[in-house]
Amino acid sequence: MAMNYQTSEPIILGSGELYIGLASEIADLSNLTTQEEEALVNIGAIESGASIKIKTEKKEVKAANRGLIRKFVVDKEVTFSTGIMTWVMKNVAKYLLGSTFTKDETTGKEKFVLNIKDDAPIIYLRFVHKKKTGGSLTVNIYKAQFDGDLSFTFDDEKPLTVDYEFVALADDSGNYVEFIETFTD
Q1: Long-range contacts of 56-63 (CB under 8 A, 24+ apart)
Q2: How far apart are CA 37 and CA 21, in angstroms?
Q3: What pLDDT, on the 0 to 100 scale, is given for residue 8?
Q4: Which residue pairs from 181-185 have beta carbons closer than 8 angstroms and sit at least 24 positions apart in sequence?
Q5: How far apart are CA 56 and CA 145, in angstroms?
Q6: 76: buried, middle or exposed (CB in 10 Å: 19+, 13-18, 0-12)?
Q7: Alpha helices in 34-108 (DSSP H)
Q8: Residues contacting residue 9 through CB under 8 Å, at least 6 positions apart
Q9: Are 159 and 184 in contact, with CB atoms under 8 Å apart?
Q10: Which pTM value belongs to this model?
Q11: Among residues 160, 161, 141, 159, which one has the least CA distance to residue 149?
């Protein structure tokens, strides 16, 4: 049997922009309107290390005299991790933690308070990576929820965080994530 070689470009997520909106404010999670697209908030620039992990849990069916006769999928888990990212306090409070955020308009002082009763909202997540060769790779997770620990680094130049982690939740059709790749001629 002859094997055909197909050239391919490796897809490295690495860096890009992360956009988030509340899933409850989007009518059709698989087909956003122009207004819904424009309402997505760019919560920060991912400098490096963005990744997606897709785990599949399978069950095996074995026959006593024939060994393994079938495997079938019983669950999937999709996790998106941001890697190193700049952060904005208001966005961390609203979209990741469900915390209270306030800004004093007179002084400009911003504050968010983390409370034991805070609950991370269900969000729509979009990651856009611009490829060096042109085009882009867009990852849309229809429903996601922050599901990790936060680690903040306070630097003179810019505040950083490492690994915001989101778990994908199935939409009403059972879908988790879509990947859209564009090319330039």
Answers
A1: none
A2: 9
A3: 47
A4: 181/11, 181/135, 181/136, 181/137, 181/138, 182/135, 182/136, 182/137, 182/138, 183/134, 183/135, 184/133, 184/134, 184/135
A5: 19
A6: middle
A7: 34-39, 89-91
A8: 131, 133
A9: no
A10: 0.81
A11: 161
Q: How far apart are alpha carbons 99 and 118 in whole angstroms?
A: 6
What 8-state DSSP symbol labels residue 134? Answer: S
- DSSP H helices, the chain, are 34-39, 89-91
Phi and psi angles of residue 17, each rounded to the nearest 5 degrees, phi first: -110, 140
Amino acid (one-letter) located at 120 = A
Q: What pLDDT digit, counting tens, does each position of 99-142 carry?
A: 888 999 999 999 988 888 888 999 999 999 988 888 999 999 99
Q: Which amino acid is at 142?
A: Y
